[in-house]
Amino acid sequence: MNGLAPEVMSVRPFPGWRRIKQGKSGFMRRFVAVHPLVMASSLLLHLIGHHPDYTLLDGLLAGFLSLFAIGSVVRHVSRQGEALPILSWAFLILYVYFGLPVFFPGMDSETVAFQDLKDSGAVTLALLAIVVMGGCMLAGYAGGRVFGGRMADTRLLRSAGGWSRAGIFPGVLFIYALMSVSISYLIYRYIAHPPWYFFLVKVFFSPVLCQLILLYEMKRQGGKTLRLAYISFLALSIIAALITSRLAYMIMPLVIHIVVAFGRHERINPLLLAAMILGMVLVNPLKLQYRAAAGFFDQGGEIEHSLSRSIDLWGMVFAEKWMSGGQSSPWLESLTGLSSRMNLLSTVAETFYKVPDLLDHEYGSTWMAVPYAFVPRLIWREKPDLTAITNDYYCIKFGQLSRSETDFISLSFPLATEGYWNMGWLGVVFAGGLVGFWFGLLGRWFSIPGLFSFAFCYVCLFNVKPGTGPLVDVFGSVPQKFLAVFVVIYLLTKVSNLLRRLSLGGGQGYRKGRGGIV
User: What is the end-to-end Cα distance of the chain in Å, rounded?
Assistant: First the structure.
């Protein structure tokens, strides 16, 4: 029924859902009550308020994308109990990257001017492809839910839910959190091209997995110790991301917290939302300036400055950007730059402009990376570089980057682009349906009580931004992630049970079983 175990629900009910049922939910309840009006207004706004660079049909198609996003949010909020908000996550991202751009001036793609894309009808076809892909995601999601219901009854998945029934020791979680932040920091700060076995280390000590386990146990056990550990982890993760200029990791802890709160029907702290937005607007535009000042590109992708040096560099680029008193407003420049980076519509339109007139279909060549992704490099040491097969190959074929430039730069390779380039419209339908089917499986598996299903499903959800990358990004390293979540939770639980047994002297109050102390 939900990600938390039944005994957790009896102790810690979902206050957000209860307020919805009792008519006291505030903003989200009012949103659900008036959502037909909101959807109609959104469609009308896209029809009459789109930028003049786009046609009326473009505005209508973008409006349909907004309906997908609004409908998925309403569907999730209206459900009883906790659920994985994977459809809301997917459709909101699709709208931000492909629907929202119609309110801004048209952008040139990497190699084609926007006016040429518009005149050829490629922009309209790109929007239509995203809408078709979204519809196929919905159909695939329904099928995945049905199929996932049969797999959810397997003994492996059911038994994993009972491991952490007694909870993980706060001290054990605190040590794991410190190791997770430290290892990720060292890998991204000092190792530009880590050896293959570092991938295993990164998976087992993933900051995303660590935060999800901390968050789950904090909500379940309560207490100041776990709350302090969780807040400390967030602070250390954000600081480490700033120092290493991996700004996606600075925003990600806040995104995870907000999405999980939404999934549990909890009130979302407006301060966290404001901090996330402010971080994107203030800090994200400075990423390239910081890397250039730190010698990131000159040193082959490594940054080896001390903490004090990193702070000085951030202060320098921040002052240069926001306090220089230039001609144009830095706020406007930042928002414009942010909107351009979150605009992939022209990227998809370029595909319809060039294929098949200038470039032939690939007939599934980039999809070959998907089965490769399921084989761990530990077993297949000569496994091809999946980024080279997908993103790099695409950038080179479309003339966006040279082969040498792909060593330092990687451009987006949207799912609709990959689908149409491989198999035309059939490829768009196939890619959307397959991704939706996978989302349906995750949504169904999430209903299995316990920490394992909670952590694994959310790790897969946060693994990608749906629709903005190729198919291999969605399915990449799924067996490895399954194994990592399985092993990490198993070890943390066993260590916690051992500590409990030692603290109780192995006497009364301890009974060995699937859940440890019962």
Answer: 22
Q: Cβ atoms within 10 A of the Cβ of 453, count?
A: 26
Residue 5 has pLDDT above 70, yes or no: no
Write out pLDDT tens, residues 336-389: 667 777 889 999 999 999 999 999 999 999 999 999 888 877 788 788 888 889
pLDDT 10s digits, 157-170: 555 555 556 678 88
Most confident of 79-93, 196-210, 244-258, 297-311: 79-93
* CA atoms of 335 and 326, how far apart (whole Å): 16
Are 366 and 418 in contact, with CB atoms under 8 Å apart? Answer: yes
Per DSSP (E only), the strands in 125-264 are: none
Q: In angstroms, rounded to a whole number, what is the distance separating the alpha carbons of residues 371 and 107?
A: 35
Q: Are 464 and 167 in contact (CB under 8 A)?
A: no
Angle between helices 122-151 and 345-354 (to 10 degrees): 110
> Alpha-carbon distance 506 to 501, whole Å?
5
pLDDT of residue 163: 57
237 neighbors 181 (Cβ within 8 angstroms): yes
Residues 203, 485: Cα–Cα separation, whole Å? 9
Count of C-beta atoms within a 10 Å radius of residue 311: 14
User: Can you give the pLDDT at residue 100?
Assistant: 94
* Count of alpha carbons within 13 angstroms of residue 230, beta-carbon side: 21
